[in-house]
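Worked Example 4.2. Read the sequence first, then its structure tokens.
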Amino acid sequence: MSADNQNKKVQEEIEKEPLTEEKINEQMQVRIGKMHKMEEVGIMPFGHRFLWTHHAKDIADDFEVLEAKETEVKLAGRVMAIRGQGKTSFMDLMDKSGRIQLYVRKDVLGEENYALVKMMDIGDIVGITGTVFRTHMGEISIRVTQLEILSKSLRPLPEKWHGLKDVEMRYRQRYLDLIVNPDVKDTFIKRSKIVKCVRDILDSRDFLEVETPILNTIPGGAAARPFITYHNALDMQLYLRIATELNLKRLVVGGLERVYEMGRIFRNEGIDIKHNPEFTSVEIYQAYADYNDMMDLTETVVSECAQRVLGTMKITYEGTDIDLTPPWPRITMIDAIKKYSGKDFTDVTDVDTARQLAAEAKVEVEATWGVGKIINAFFDQFVEEKLVQPVFITEYPKEISPLAKSSAANPDITDRFEGFIYGREICNGFTELNDPIDQRERFLKQVEERNAGDEEANMMDEDFVTSLEVGLPPTGGLGIGIDRMVMFLTDSSSIRDVILFPHMRNKDSK
């Protein structure tokens, strides 16, 4: 049996079942033995700096010129396949741009250097020098003239067909996921481009990027349970921020008319395909604007990022075609509830009527809820999952919008919106409440709810009220969930697929 056929047979045996920990340990011992053999013949298994000249994609893009001029190229990357054990070997080298085939001959490297090939394993990182050519099969390759080991891989990579199906391994050991799954690497490259695109759009509109504290004495700006920590030197309890809103609005008070911050937010809540305890959002505030301006900005940011990164505003998410092209429809929350549940809250102002409607529709409500929270419960039950194409839901109840400005037409409704795609919220925005007296009253109401057991209700923030007393100009505010936006633009079904290191339960937890 030839060496190639033997290797193929071994590979087929490996792919029949996943690597057990016992097999991994056995293979590691073999690899460690090869490492020692390298050391015995004076080869350093963990090398030093390597000056590369090209990536794999560069070779493909400039092949004709490089071949015609017989240009010497230098590449560095990870060996992902080794074929042949005689006088000629083929390897697949993977770098950040893709893969390329290496053609290695004993009579070119010399017997002593060619012996290194037999000490190598899939996963080893090498540096190579050579010239480009095309094989008789038409594959662009590099004829290797020098081969240098840069890092010996002591642990075997997960085999192609089984390792990638282990979701736990993918998320816990993202470095392996990135190595063996090109689609995953592509997702995170696109994420980086999307983030840059958001910044470019805002910067071009004269918004100033700022930074606000992650540790806060009061968790504010959202209805969420915070993470709590303690500062020893100051002898005080602190909270990881649940939003950047209040500090950003303080800056608008100070005269920074257009500000935004992109960064991590922390919420001590459950984990599912749409939620992670820490996530990335961008919050944007524009003086002398309102929630209509923020809706315009939202659809611009999302659609332009799709066009710039994907080349189209028409995407497919989980098999569903979605058109992000502006303008997006706008419908009030009450009208949406009427459309999908048949219940009309237009003139409902007393809680007894609202409860009766809930009973008729079999919507569960809590004893402490007012009309606003009951309306929101109807929305959650009947409407949200129906909102597949991009749409803005507007005019949220005041009861669930403690920081939004009341509508001039109805004081129980606010100038607030949320954007939905595929039944999922992607953004939240409103005309900011800038009346300090009204804001204080709403904070006091939130404190009552918190004292009644609602851990997600806002705390009183006296300094924020003080800033409003100084004077906040009419302002539009917006928050976009970057992770969810990336999910849609990369067709990723779980938020864990777009966060490099998502939080996981400890392996030994039951």
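Now turn to a second chain, presented in exactly the same format:
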Amino acid sequence: MTDGNIVGTIDVAEIAFYVFVLFFIALVFYLRREDRREGYPVEDELTGAIDTPGGPLSRASTKTFHLPFGKGTVTAPTGTRDPFDLAARRRENFGGAPYSPTGNPLLDGIGPGAFARRADYPDLDAHGNPRIVPLSAAENIYVAKGGVDPVGLPVYGADGKKAGVVTELWVDMAEHIIRYLEIDTGAGTSIAPMPMAVVRRDGIRIDALPAADFAGVPLPATPGQMTRFEEERIAGYFGAGYLYGTADRQEPWL
């Protein structure tokens, strides 16, 4: 066998090619099955009826995931949809039609204000400790010398009016960055995402919302602790402001 053939005209390279093609086809089916764990079963956009899960090659097998730090287990897929009342109405009766909020657009979870239903316990670091905590409760973390310390600076909204004064910083213990600003509005406490803030030495500008709307931000239920779901609600509230914060933002540009 000096020409490399195993039998007839079939050689090692040809067998390796066929094995690769079969492996790749199997991999595609495996990945298509595995990606059907979240958001499935899908539902009809107009009627809300649950669609069939599909055949065995497109249906994910049930798996149980053990969460770290004693947070229990999660099983997916379950074959059912988690009921959730969306505070919105369809503007037109066709697939893909936009929705309009029916209540407070900053809280209804529509469009840029959408939020995921994450677990209602704090995000944890590699050691099982809360990852996002107030700076006053964090050890060995401080604002860099020479940098602008946001604490004590006034915060201005999209209308240029003063929304309050920063009284505390919420920091990420895993990445050592500021995640949220805690603001005293004069009538209570508000929490704003740091990525939406422009910090200068004379003040902080957050153009997501007018100053008066800062007081309506969903706040953590436990002082000094913020859950994953509460993070989603805070980010969703300010995100919604970029569309629903003012009347002119809801109108077309052209």
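Notes for the reader: The two ends are 75 Å apart (CA to CA). Residues 5-34 form one domain.
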